[in-house]
Design brief:
By secondary structure, the chain is α+β, with helices and mostly antiparallel strands. It has eight helices and twelve strands.
C-alpha cells in the first residue's frame, strides 16, 4: 500500500514525521510536522480538513482537544507466525480457554499468523520463553486442529485496552479507525470498523464535492459523518467489551451462559447469518463503497 501511495501524484508523504502542533481557524487548519531526524527542519502545512487515522495510543486525539475513555483489560496480545502441519487454507480459527484466547489467520506459503491473548503476568513469561518452550505452550493451549506447529517467527507484544473518543470531530478535524475506537481483538472487528469509517467519510465528502459545496460545508460533512458512524461504534464497542468480560469471568453462571451461547450460535436458524451481517457492516444504511458502487 505504501508503494502505491508513493506513486500517486496527488498524494505527498512525510515520513518519518509526527504532528507537533495543530490549530484551527475559520477557513482552514494548520499542522506543524516534526521530523525524527534533528538535522531536518519542521514542516508547516495548511489544510481545509485534517483526517486523523493514527493508532489509539498516538495521542493525536488529545492534541486535537478530544478526550477519550480508556479501559485497561490487564491483558496483552502476543502476535507472531508459525508453520502448521495442516495448511490453514484460507480459514480462520479462534479458541477460547480459561485465561484468554488464541486466533489463527492465514498467511502466504502455508504460514499462519496467531494472536495469543494472555493476562499481563503470563504474557511476560511467554515473551521471555525460548522458541521451543513458546511453541510447546502454544500447541498445548490451541490443540492439534492445525497439526504440529514449527518454525516460530518473530513475536511482539501489545497491551490491550478499550479506547473510545468522546467525540469524532472538531471544527476542521475528524477521527477514523483506531484514532476513534481502539477495540479488543477478541472479535476481530477493529479493522472492519475502520474501513466503514473511511467509506462513510468518503461518502460525506463526495456529496459536498459534487454539489460544489465542500469548502463551505465542512461542518455539515463532519456532523453527518458523526451521526452516521456513532451507532455502529457504540454497537461494536459494547459487543467486544461484553465478549471480553463474558469470557474473562470465572463465575459458574457465566460459564453456563458462554456454553449456551455457543450452542445457540450453531443451532438457532438464521442467527449466525444475522450475526455475520452485522459484524461485516452490511446492516443499516451503507455507504457507496460498502455497496460496491464506485465514485464517478
Amino acid at each position: 500500500m505504501l508503494s502505491e501511495l508513493e506513486n500517486k501524484e496527488n498524494i505527498k508523504m512525510f515520513c518519518p514525521y509526527e504532528i507537533d502542533s495543530f490549530s484551527e481557524q475559520q477557513t482552514d487548519c494548520n499542522i506543524s510536522l516534526k521530523p525524527n531526524d534533528k538535522k531536518k527542519s519542521k514542516i508547516e502545512l495548511t489544510s481545509q480538513l485534517l483526517i486523523a487515522a493514527s493508532g489509539a495510543d498516538s495521542g493525536l486525539h488529545k492534541l486535537l482537544g478530544i478526550n477519550s475513555n480508556v479501559v485497561n483489560y490487564h491483558q496483552d496480545a502476543i502476535i507472531g507466525n508459525v508453520m502448521t502441519a495442516i495448511p490453514i487454507a484460507n480459514r480462520a480459527f479462534e479458541r477460547f480457554y480459561s485465561e484468554g484466547s488464541i486466533a489463527f489467520l492465514p498467511l502466504a506459503n502455508n504460514r499462519s499468523a496467531f494472536i495469543w491473548i494472555l493476562p499481563n503476568h503470563k504474557s511476560e513469561i511467554m515473551m521471555n520463553a525460548s522458541n521451543n518452550e513458546f511453541l510447546e505452550m502454544l500447541q498445548k493451549e490451541f490443540g492439534l486442529r492445525l497439526g504440529k506447529m514449527s518454525d516460530l517467527g518473530n513475536r511482539v507484544k501489545y497491551s490491550l485496552n478499550l479506547t473510545r473518543a468522546l467525540r469524532l470531530h472538531t471544527k476542521r478535524s475528524v477521527l477514523v479507525g483506531n484514532a476513534a475506537n481502539g477495540l479488543h481483538p477478541i472479535a476481530a472487528q477493529g479493522f472492519n470498523l475502520g474501513l466503514r469509517d473511511v467509506a462513510t467519510l468518503s461518502d460525506c465528502i463526495y456529496e459536498e464535492i459534487i454539489n460544489e459545496e465542500f469548502e463551505t460545508n465542512i461542518g455539515k460533512i463532519l456532523n453527518k459523518y458523526s451521526a452516521w458512524r456513532n451507532p455502529d461504534h457504540k454497537k461494536l464497542t459494547y459487543f467486544t467489551d461484553g465478549l471480553v468480560r463474558l469470557f474473562d469471568s470465572k463465575s459458574r453462571s457465566m460459564s453456563v451462559l458462554r456454553r449456551t451461547g455457543m450452542v445457540g450460535f450453531d443451532l438457532i436458524p438464521g442467527f449466525r447469518k444475522l450475526f455475520v451481517r452485522h459484524t461485516m457492516g452490511l446492516a443499516g444504511k451503507l455507504p457507496r463503497l460498502s455497496r460496491g458502487i464506485p465514485y464517478k
